[in-house]
Design goal:
alpha/beta, Spore Coat Polysaccharide Biosynthesis Protein SpsA, Chain A, eleven-stranded mixed sheet, two-stranded antiparallel ribbon, globular
């Protein structure tokens, strides 16, 4: 088995952020968040990185990354678009945004033949996560055993608005029992404390800060493409009149677990995630990276 692949979801338009955050600078020498993820992935033993992008981003992404990684890791690109026919759906549906993160993963199915992990371009996961995921993909993964990095929700919040997280139920054996995408998780003030809540049908529900959540850091084999392809036509049919509907990654592992197709090991990490959902998050991320450099976790200049 060859080295695992890193699949980076970088097709989003960053509507809440206000610019193309995939190529925004956060490190002292203009490093992007993706740069830190790929630095960690290279050191952990990944052999290839595939960027999922919109085709109109190709030139700017190649200018930013191709030469930088040319002698360090294989780089490839896949495009997320509106063509449903390549996924077995013989119709055209007018939308302003593609069909979500699971649809993005499916868009890379012709680029990946080995175990791989999926990450978001705008999330900083930390060295520990890549080391643990590489170990899993090299030594444990199979078509019936896949994984996700399980972050504590209290370590993944933004002070500037709501976030989306895949909230996990974990078995005593450390496997995922279910995962539910929650798109409105935020802080509320309760006296002098902050409480974490999510909204469902207009009702606030409390989340324990140690609840394990997915940050779209999944460990898969190519079997996941087959399952997603089987699920997607029905999703399109049920949501053809809903232009904001999204085929999220967690729906595929959740289906696989509930139908006995695979177990998903929840790999625990206490790492503090940080990312850029809002423009106000940027100085927080820059400060966090500066602290990690000062602690020796990363060199001042990555590449």
């Amino acid at each position: 088995m060859g080295k695992p692949t890193l699949l980076v979801l970088a097709a989003g338009m960053a509507s809440r952020y206000g610019s193309l955050k995939q190529v925004d600078s956060f490190g002292p020498h203009g490093e992007t968040i993706i740069d830190y993820s790929i630095y960690d992935a290279i050191n952990a033993g990944f052999g290839k990185v595939v960027f999922i992008i919109r085709q109109e981003f190709e030139t700017i992404m190649r200018e930013k990354f191709d030469n930088k990684f040319a002698d360090k890791i294989e780089v490839d690109y896949a495009f997320q678009d509106f063509d449903l026919k390549k996924f077995g759906v013989d119709r055209e549906i007018e939308r302003t945004k593609p069909w979500g993160t699971a649809h993005a993963v499916m868009s890379a199915m012709d680029k990946i033949n080995e175990p791989f992990c999926v990450i978001n371009a705008d999330d900083f996961y930390g060295t520990d996560s890549f080391v643990k995921m590489a170990d899993f993909l090299n030594n444990e993964v199979s078509d019936s055993k896949m994984s996700l990095m399980g972050f504590e929700v209290g370590n993944t919040m933004s002070d500037h608005g709501y976030v989306s997280r895949g909230v996990c139920e974990v078995t005593e054996e450390g496997n995922m029992a279910s995962v539910t995408e929650r798109t409105n998780i935020y802080y509320v003030e309760e006296g002098d404390q902050k409480k974490i809540v999510f909204e469902e049908n207009g009702v606030q529900n409390t989340l324990n800060p140690t609840t394990r959540v997915s940050m779209n850091f999944w460990g898969f084999t190519p079997k996941v493409f087959e399952v997603a392809l089987a699920m997607f036509p029905q999703f399109v049919e049920e949501n053809s009149d809903n232009p904001k509907s999204e085929f999220f990654i967690p729906s595929v592992p959740d289906y696989m677990v509930k139908n006995g197709l695979a177990d998903f090991k929840v790999i625990p990490t206490s790492s503090k995630w940080f990312g850029v959902t809002y423009a106000e998050d940027k100085p927080v991320v820059q400060d966090s990276i500066s602290k990690l450099i000062a602690e020796g976790a990363y060199p001042e200049k990555l590449f």
